[in-house]
Amino acid sequence: MVEGFLFAMFAGVAVGCALGVVFHRNPVHCALLLVGVLLSLAGIFVMLHAQFVAALQVIVYAGAIMVLFLFVVMLLNIKGESPLLSPGAAKGFGFLFALLVCVELFWTVVQPGGQEGVMPEAAPLAHDFGSPAALGKLLYTTWLYPFEITSILLLVAVVGAVVLAKRKFF
Amino acid sequence: MDLGFLIEALVKILIVLGFVLLGVPLIVWMERKVLGHMQDRIGPQRVGPFGLLQTIADGMKLFFKEDLVPAQADKVVFAIAPAIAVVTALAAATVIPFGDQVHLFGRDIQLHITDVNIAILFLLGATSMGVYGVVLGGWASNSKYPLLGGLRASAQMISYELAMGVSLVPIILMTGSLSLAQIGRAQEHLWFVVPQFVAFVIYLVCAVAETNRAPFDLAEAETELVAGFHTEFSSMRFALYFLSEYANMMVVSGVAITCFLGAWYGPVLPGPVWFLIKLSLFLFFYVWLRATFPRLRYDQLMGLGWKVLLPVALLNLAVTAVVLTVRG
Amino acid sequence: METTPAIPLIWYQVLAAILFTIGVVGVLVRRSALIIFMSIELMLNAVNLSLIAFSRQNGTMDGHILVFFVMAVAAAEVSIGLAIIVAIFRNRETASVDDVHLLKG
Predict the structure, then answer these.
(1) Is the Cβ pair A74, B147 closer than 8 Å?
(2) Which of B242, C43, B127, B73 is CA-nearest to residue A67?
(3) pLDDT tens digits for B117-128?
(4) Cβ B125–A35 below 8 Å, yes or no?
(5) Which SS3 state, helix, strand or coil, does residue B102 take?
(6) What pLDDT score does B227 carry?
(7) Is B237 exposed, middle or buried (0-12, 13-18, 19+ CB in 10 A)?
(8) CB C96, CB C33: distance < 8 Å
(9) Strand partners, B103
(10) Does 1.10.287.3510 match the CATH number of domain C10-95?
């Protein structure tokens, strides 16, 4: 019962803030609403026993990436554009396509019947499910190669961002 | 989830909240007195015995001031920015343990509001969210100097967060747990400041920079940038920023004590009393820093954080990891 | 740990689908490059939610690892994307994708 209430609250806040991100005029307000989405998703992650990922979501996503967004918006003094949405046919096509995506996702997720359509029983969880220790064990053994490649990717991103944002070379 | 658990949680929340909210006037008084004596003057001495009621008088003055909102300011963000600063500071105070177990009323009561098993990550998350209080306050004022001050202060905070997190990782390696209660208990025989002195120094510097205190308070000092990000905030909004700064100081000192200075362990007195003594000494050290050092220029500050503290912290982490592996 | 979660895990997938759709709307319909970027982040978060829910379903932590990598890649992508937007903005004084059509034939 408590879980139902918590899920309803987090889901409602997430969907409301997401709609605000897409339909708000002021970019700073959109960024703050996106932070709201991220925080409510972090709450849902905790409900799903993913406490380490929830902490990462708050520290990395809401605490660093969104601060970067806010810095860019504030430094460039980007104002809301008018009109808000793309004109005419592009807007219509956009909504139609989004509707198609939504229907397709619901179809795959919700439809009953058949071996593939029904979600199996939830598996029993290990004692340290979602803890940093368990994630670390998996990350440094099975997933070591992607981990090292991701670190190189981050290095490339840092160098690229510095080069792209410089005013002039030397 | 029985009634006893609820009552216990409520009482602990009231105690910690009361301690932080009532401790702030005391810290402010101590700061003004100590700064005064270090600068060869007396400090507040007229309002109440030894000037103890000075902060209360200042609080009342702030309460009665006019609450100005700048003309083109973003009203919603202007209202929530100080609230974010205070909420994140108080939220971080929930995981700091101020003693070991006690046995009262037939229950084993842990002396911290909640024992999250990722407490250090929770603290880093709360500090990351505290950046929003600063940057939004600066932006919502719709004015040059607050915006610049807010951006500078938040850039400083996110830079020093990295070195702070990395300096805490050797402690996690040595205890094998992210929970602050466990880290505290692991220091029963040897305080972690002895093997991890480098990490302690780095953490100290980063803590001072995180809380925007002298000598790292360029972004909010009165002689620079008017008053930085909280220029346009008056009355209770300013009081909230003030409160959040000192609450942050207490939280960060609490973490330093728990991770490096032996938490609540000490010879004769009970745990919480030792915690209080160490906390007071730490806060006195903060004020001592303010009275002694000149302010760092902004580029010196950022250079220190990225070019000195972060590499040294990473090196310390590597050395600790190697030593722990070799020892088995 | 309990074996049957109190909320049926299908609901998390439905929430992820809704968030993903809202993100798609944002990408296709808004004209400001920054808001399009934020909608992409929204889509990535919807996928993260779906991964975590499936990870809970199966009892393995591979979903958590994938979310970890998605976050790292999102951080890299955001920094480069924002650098590009800053560079464009410096040149053209606009952040609207409708006005950046130099290659149009």
Answers:
(1) yes
(2) B127
(3) 899 999 999 999
(4) no
(5) strand
(6) 72
(7) buried
(8) yes
(9) B108
(10) yes
Q: Across the interface, do A58 and B129 touch by the CB < 8 Å criterion?
A: yes
Nearest to B160 by CA among B283, B303, B42, B316: B303
Q: Which residue of C has its CA nearest to A16?
A: C19
Distance separating alpha carbons of residues B201 and B192, to the nearest angstrom: 12
The rounded percent of chain A whose pLDDT value lies above 70 is: 89
Q: Name the residue ranges covered by the structural domains of chain C.
A: 10-95
Amino acid at B165: G
Angle at B256 between CA B211 and CA A51, to 5 degrees: 85
Count, residues in chain C: 105
Q: In 3D, which of A154, A155, A161, A170 has the Cα closest to residue A72?
A: A161
Q: Which of A71, B169, B30 is nearest to C83 (CA)?
A: A71
Contact B77, B140 (CB under 8 A): yes
Q: In angstroms, rounded to a whole number, what is the distance separating the alpha carbons of residues B312 and B267?
A: 34
Neighbours of chain B (3+ CB pairs under 8 A): A
List the single residue in A26, A59, A67 with the smallest CB-CB distance to B135: A67
User: Per DSSP, what are the bridge partners of residue B89?
Assistant: none
Interchain proximity A55–B125, CB inside 8 Å = yes
Mean predicted lDDT score pLDDT of chain B: 88
Decide: pTM greater than 0.90: yes
Cβ separation of C19 and A143 shorter than 8 Å?
no
Contacts 24+ apart (CB under 8 A), C83-89: C83/A160, C83/A161, C83/A164, C83/A165, C84/A164, C85/A72, C85/A76, C85/C33, C85/C34, C85/C37, C86/A72, C86/A76, C86/A164, C86/A165, C87/A164, C87/A165, C88/C33, C89/A76, C89/A78
Contact in structure between A64 and A75 (CB atoms under 8 Å): no
User: Cβ A32–B77 below 8 Å, yes or no?
Assistant: yes
C94 contacts C29 by C-beta, under 8 angstroms: no
Alpha carbon of C27: minimum distance to chain A alpha carbons (Å): 8
Average pLDDT over residues C65-85: 94
DSSP element (H, E) containing A53: helix A51-56
pLDDT one-digit tens code per residue, A78-109: 777 766 777 777 788 888 888 999 888 888 77
> How buried is A145 (Cβ within 10 angstroms: 0-12 exposed, 13-18 middle, 19+ buried)?
exposed
Q: Is B107 helix (H, G, I), strand (E, B) or coil?
A: strand
Residue of B nearest to A42 (CA): B125
Closest Cβ opposite residue A132 in set B125, B158, B178: B178
Average pLDDT over residues B110-114: 78
Chains B and C touch (3+ CB pairs under 8 A): no
CB contact under 8 A, A69 and C10: no
CB < 8 Å to B79, chain A:
none
Q: How far apart are CA C41 and CA C61, in angstroms?
A: 23
Terminus-to-terminus CA distance in chain B, angstroms? 41
Its ipTM equals 0.91
A114 pLDDT band, cuts 50/70/90, is: very low
CB-based contact B221:B131 (threshold 8 Å): no
